[in-house]
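idk why but the lab printer keeps eating my pages so im just putting this in chat instead. protein + adenosine-5'-triphosphate:
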Amino acid sequence: MKRAGTTEVMQQRGCWNCGAPVESLYLCNRCATLQRFPEKIDYFTLFGIEPQLNIDLARLEAAFYELSRKFHPDFYQKKSSEEQAISLENSAILNKSYRTLKDPIQRVEYLIRFVEGGSAVASEAPADLFDEIFELQELLEGVKRGPGDAGEAGRLLGELKSAEGRFLKIQEEGNRSLERLSIEWDRLQKGRTEKGLTEEQRRSLSEMKQILSRRAYLERILNDIQTGIGKLEKGN
Amino acid sequence: MPRVVGIDLGTTNSLVAYMERGTPRVIPDAEGIAILPSVVSFGWEGRPEGVVVGEEAKKHLITYPDRTVFSIKRFMGKGMEDVGDDRTFVPYALTGGKQEVVRISVVGKLYTPPEISAFILRELKQRAEAFFKEPVRQAVITVPAYFNDSQRQATKDAGKIAGLEVLRIVNEPTAASLAYGLQKKKEGTIVVYDLGGGTFDVSILKIKNGIFEVLSTNGDTHLGGDDVDRQLTLLMVREIATQSGMDLSSSPEALQEIRLVSEKVKCQLSFEEKAEVALSFPDKKINYRRTIARTEFDALIDDFVEKTLGPCRQALTDAHLKPEQVDEVILVGGSTRIPLVRKRVADLFKKIPHSELNPDEVVALGAAVQADILAGGITNMLLLDVTPLSLGIETMGGGVSRLIPRNTTIPSSAKEMFTTFVDGQKSVSIHVVQGERELVKDCRSLAKFNLTEIDPMPAGIPRIEVTFMIDANGILNVNAKELRSGKAQSIEVKPTYGLTDGEVEKMISESIEHAREDLNERMFIEARNEAESVLRHAERALSQGAALVDGSEKGEIEKSIAGLKEAMNGNDHHRVREALDRLDQSTKHLAETLMNQTLKEALQEKKLSDL
Amino acid sequence: MAYSNKVIDHYNNHRNVGSLDKNAPEVGTGVVGAPECGDVMKLQLRVNNGVIEDAKFKTFGCGSAIASSSLATEMLKGKTLNEATEIKNTDIVNELNLPPVKIHCSVLAEDAIKAAIADYKKKNGLV
Ligand SMILES: Nc1ncnc2c1ncn2[C@@H]1O[C@H](COP(=O)(O)OP(=O)(O)OP(=O)(O)O)[C@@H](O)[C@H]1O
Ligand SMILES: [Mg+2]
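predcted complex ->
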């Protein structure tokens, strides 16, 4: 697996301005001009932190502010257009990395892609969810068309509310498992320097992916259910 | 260091400010007034381009409503489709075809909103030039945070047309926070509530170690003091109609007058419990009088104030904050003087909002701070702003695929892969939209372009990479290419409601011509005024002190006077200045002699003990 | 050109929305989803003598998925099961200016067809 801060990220590159080999992430040691991030830069290396799931958010923020001062276009107003372009690109990458690592879910997704290189969701679909989602969507279509009478509206509302509770519970369970798995992952990863994943790590990752692959469906259906509930309650 | 000024281009009022040794200051006009009403009146003979701007133009609002343009900011970056009922509320004529920029028709000419805004900007530019006695070419201009891409682009275009290089477009509430942060040196989470003449913005920021990080922004680009005026106007028109049977809504002059009275009444009710209204139109035999109490006014604007609170709540949610977690609330914009506004804001955020900063000036002051940062003056402050609206492209079926969500820190970029819908499809239409809704029809169209010459492949095989980049101005650049064929794709972006580069270029070249003429003319007028007073003094000195100077000195002075008079008849300010210098030199000795003489006389009249 | 019109037509008016009897032996059902956006799609086929007689779909999600399903079901009708697995049209479409499709939406309909055929074959002991 890839490790933060190793030379792997730092493929050989020359300064765009003076041609000298560039050794740091974003600065030429000889002519002190701003450099593009290496192509393979990962968010953990960028912030100088370990690839972990539980991170110190205050430290992340401090690093973000410090790096913002290095790249922000405000400070390149009078520099060459090439440096201005680099400042814009690096700032955009920095902002995106911060947004990703700050959010616990996006952080998990990113870590999975980082260690495995592939997609962050499991390839098998959560078929068990689909039947229920279909039924509910058909119910919601009834809501959209407008319920026939007050009795029907009440019945629909009841069904939607109970479904909402059910899905919220699944979602909540998923979040809790993800928290537990995050702690576990960090423990398994701690101190490891060799490439490749252990059996336990693989299992941990695959569990995380299972949860992530249900998230979008759950979010979508919850959103639709809540819209439906809102509509019915307003209609009353 | 070249001067960079900060400009608040407001719906009702505009200002220009600069940084003086670490403190932002507004630049006043010759009379010492900093606020420039955002009003442009056309058709004035003897004035450059027939245009007058500001206080003078404001005087023509009632007398020449059809050629005096106000609240132009409401139309920036808009097409006829977006204008809605604003069209009926302004007395000047709006035209424009479908999917075209709005144009204002005055004295037989068509102007786009950026061109009209450019008149205001040019006035401010000249004011700054007169103040610094040197040309000003670069500026930071503020826009409502909730302005979309077309509106920002239009503002940038206006700057260019006015002969300004717009170094940055800054959001008004964030600009205000910069001025606030600089003055108060406070840290923490602050809310800026900015209710101006035409727009409403709310921004939540975290200030820490000189970094101003915007956490979220929301607002309504179509909500402001204008709407309050309109409520009152409609009330009065209604009441006049019931009392006298006269419908004034079709008379632009009358409406304009009622609107101005409404604004006065509104402002009065901010400080007093009631206001008297007296309107009379003798030609229509209308004499309308009534008292409006604060309570009645509050009831009238209740919905209006409520409308600003939704965006505040959304901004809190987006920043993941509760009202208790906000340290301070800052009020910006003239409409925050309304007591009901203050009360509601205090209730929502559970704290008394700050209003000790001058709400009219704080945005311009903040723009000056940002200008100074860009000029390399201030180095320890940095503003990290966000994009107010989500950006995406239309996908097959009329849905929107979001590439950059709202409240993303800018600069920001995003890339996503798309494909074709049918086999052998050779081109794809990329439609860029901005907004929070799921369907294209509910979002704002920004631009459309076609990606052509894709190699024919079965559906789903092409890999179309769409890249978005939002720069620090919040302005978007879009790129698309098909990766499998690897061909560089020709893209022509056609802004839906914007001016093309060509159009802007043309307006700039026209205006630079004018600007150069204008500037020369102004400098000449200034030099001539000065020359007139110097001349009066010199001639008087010569007649008083003729006995004190010899013939050759006298001849030299007379020659200088003649030279100055000749220069004053020309149009070159340089020549006037040169002649002035020469006269100054040649009268130096005479002036000193006269001075000594006067002093001597004065002393002789007084007793020694008086001194 | 006729083909283009057909596409536009599907873009505007979705056809074959609905469902068939899930438990009937001659009906194959495929349910698939796109985990990226949470779209789900159900596609059903009725087969008679190895030929697809009818096809219906139901999609809850973005317009692309709906338009894709509408077009896919229309093209399925009258095809044999083997032909159905490779619906391809080689016409070159020049004039058409269609918006792009999210990649995962474009594969959704294809996945659904495969899943429905697999279901039918399983039900009828053809695998
Ligand atoms: N005392 C007052 N009471 C109520 N409203 C006031 C008062 N003074 C000014 N206003 C209103 O404030 C508005 C002007 O505010 P401001 O100058 O901040 O707006 P602006 O910057 O021109 O507009 P915007 O920021 O929306 O583009 C006008 O609608 C004006 O009537
Ligand atoms: Mg303002």
